[in-house]
């Protein structure tokens, strides 16, 4: 029997926060489930952001799970540093490594939840031989590199295909969506099978970030078949995160 769908979680993306006041931005979303941290290297994507030092600083100001999305070439060289810094989840792109199987196993061995991400142009078939090694699948709903872009509507179909794959294999993996997620785009994504909504602009460009998280939670909960639950307690590692 297919395991029950997990509740929908909201993960504000700090890319849209005020980088001069990151701790303050974190304190403005106490009702979030996870905090999403975008790591960009200027090679895999045409933008540069933060490294393990910033993740370690965030670790000191929050007990929320830190959901770290590595948009970097050869992420294998960095996973241990991010694990030491206090990341709870590490997501790597199928397009960024020659050794995806080994890398996902290594992330799990480090005691973290392993995520695998797909760029918009990458087919779901790329997951075929690795999905059993993943705790979450991240479907990029914009081309990675920048916040504030327009949601790509065809990605709803991709979320459906990922959900179908997980059901066929009877896997209880999270399906995370990232890019252009707001109260208009979220319902179709949740209906398609997304269980984690990453939202940057919608949350942090609002005068009331916590209110924006609540609105996303409300529209997600309104979609038939999904539990409209409140925020969970913070946690770490694979179990309970
Ligand atoms: O990974 C990325 C961008 O590459 C995202 O996490 C963005 O931060 C999402 O931002 P919005 O589209 O919600 O503004």
User: In sequence order, what are the helices and strands, one letter per element?
Assistant: EHEHEHEHEEHEHEHH
Q: Give the strand order of the largest sheet, numbering strands 1, 2, ... along the chain.
A: 1-8-7-6-5-4-3-2
Mean pLDDT: 93
Between the first and last Cα atoms, what is the distance in angstroms?
Answer: 23 Å
CATH topology: TIM Barrel
Helix content: 25-40%
CATH homologous group name: Aldolase class I
**How many beta-strand elements?**
8
- Main β-sheet, in a few words? 8 strands, parallel
CATH architecture: Alpha-Beta Barrel
Measured on Cα atoms, how large is the radius of gyration? 16 Å
Small-molecule binders here are: 5-O-phosphono-D-xylulose
Q: Quickly give the structural class.
A: alpha/beta
Number of domains: 1
Could you characterize the architecture of this molecule?
This protein is of the alpha/beta class. The protein has one domain: TIM Barrel, CATH 3.20.20. The chain is built from eight helices and eight strands; from the N terminus they run E-H-E-H-E-H-E-H-E-E-H-E-H-E-H-H. The chain has helices at residues 22-27, 52-59, 79-85, 100-109, 155-169, 186-192, 201-204, 209-221, and strands at residues 9-12, 35-40, 66-71, 89-93, 113-118, 136-140, 174-178, 196-199. Strands 1-8-7-6-5-4-3-2 form an eight-stranded parallel sheet. Helix 4 (100-109) links the parallel strand 4 and strand 5. Helix 2 runs parallel beside helix 3 (79-85). The structure holds 5-O-phosphono-D-xylulose. 5-O-phosphono-D-xylulose (5SP) binds next to strand 2, strand 8 and helix 7. Residues 13, 15-16, 36, 38, 69, 142, 144-149, 178-181, 198-202 line the site of 5-O-phosphono-D-xylulose.
């Amino acid at each position: 029997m297919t395991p029950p769908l997990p509740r929908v979680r909201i993960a504000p993306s700090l890319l849209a926060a005020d980088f001069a006041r990151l701790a303050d931005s974190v304190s403005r979303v106490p009702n979030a489930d996870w905090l999403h941290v975008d790591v960009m290297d200027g090679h895999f994507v045409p933008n540069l952001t933060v490294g393990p030092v910033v993740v370690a600083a965030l670790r000191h100001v929050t007990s929320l799970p830190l959901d770290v999305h590595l948009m970097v070439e050869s992420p294998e060289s960095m996973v241990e540093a991010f694990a030491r810094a206090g990341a709870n989840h590490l997501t790597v792109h199928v397009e960024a490594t020659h050794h995806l199987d080994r890398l996902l196993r290594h992330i799990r061995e480090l005691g973290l939840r392993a995520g695998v991400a797909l760029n918009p142009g990458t087919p779901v078939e790329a997951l075929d031989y690795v999905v059993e090694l993943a705790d979450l699948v991240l479907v990029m709903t914009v081309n990675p590199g920048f916040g504030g872009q327009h949601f790509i509507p065809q990605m709803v179909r991709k979320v459906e295909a990922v959900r179908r794959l997980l059901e066929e294999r009877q896997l209880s993996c999270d399906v995370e969506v990232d890019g252009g997620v707001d109260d208009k785009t979220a319902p179709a994504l949740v209906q398609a099978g997304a269980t984690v909504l990453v939202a940057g602009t919608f949350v942090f460009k609002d005068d009331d970030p916590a209110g924006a998280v609540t609105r996303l939670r409300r529209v997600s909960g309104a979609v038939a078949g999904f539990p409209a639950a409140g925020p969970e307690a913070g946690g770490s590692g694979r179990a309970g995160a």
